Records
---
Amino acid sequence: MVALKKSAKGLITQGEAAREIGQSERNIRRPLKKLKSKGDRAVVYGLRGRRTKRKLDEKFKEKAIKISSGEVYADFGPTLAAEYLGDSHGI
């Protein structure tokens, strides 16, 4: 963040900022552009405080936990359990 601010003010070059952060010069340009337009909020994750679109409903989660906690699925790993839940139960 400090390196980006220095680069935005012109105190150091984009290349120097990239080396400080451990990125390539090309990967610094987008954060610099966001920093100039949004200020300090540019480094905060965009979905912070909001629910992700990929999250499943709680009823599906509870149903999957109830089914997978049975004796049939006791020795299954997560991948195999997910496959069986998808094939057998439509989850």
---
Amino acid sequence: MTANLFIAIALCGLVIGIYSGMFGVGGGIMIIPLLNLVFQLPVIGSAATSLFVVAPTALSGAIRHYRQGKIDIKPALTIGISGACASTASSLFSERIPDIVILIITAALIIYCAYTMIRSALKPAIDKEGRTSENRFKTPVTFTVAMIVLGFFAGSLAGIVGLGGGFIIIPIAVSYLGYTFKQSTALSLMSITLICIPGIITHAVLGHVWYLYGLALMIGTIPGANIGVRILPRIPEKAIRLTFGIVLVITGLLLVARQQLTGI
């Protein structure tokens, strides 16, 4: 890798980090297309390297949210621990899944979550903080079970497609758990940090991680995440939801286009 390429990747990482901090995702939604479509890494290598970058990026944003007193610790830990267990198991099976299946699953989930987020942005708020739904799990037991299931689902996908799971956690938290988007962002970033760690270890053992690309990205994503968290409070709730949904749609369509044009 040349110095110019390393710098270019780091600058891309800065943009991804800002996106991560603002939207509560680890950045995998952008990292995988970047590595696979632009830098021509294999899909499994892109997914594994994404997890390698996502964990420290999400941690950076989560620390900033924690200092601001915005993280709901217990649900975040529940989602994160459940997701970490699922991520380990699914990473072991990732090599057996054809690349085309990984791409189709990723694109379909991204587009579905985009639809959910855009729909929530168009709903009227039910309180002054901008919530559009109440928590549907009223008792501590049902709420905890919901967190475990959410973490398991997000973690399973993290191990297979290399996404931290924020693009699933946030829409569910907004639509069913009574969180605002900004609260969901803090919840997501802390959960993602835990979810990614076992997947990183598993992929590293299997030799899937492209470390130099990952390190170049992290030089940009870690400070970028802090910038994104600082920007978030300045953006209206509906605007940030709608923007998040639109970005998801574009990303999903890019993945579909890649598969259709190249068959990879």
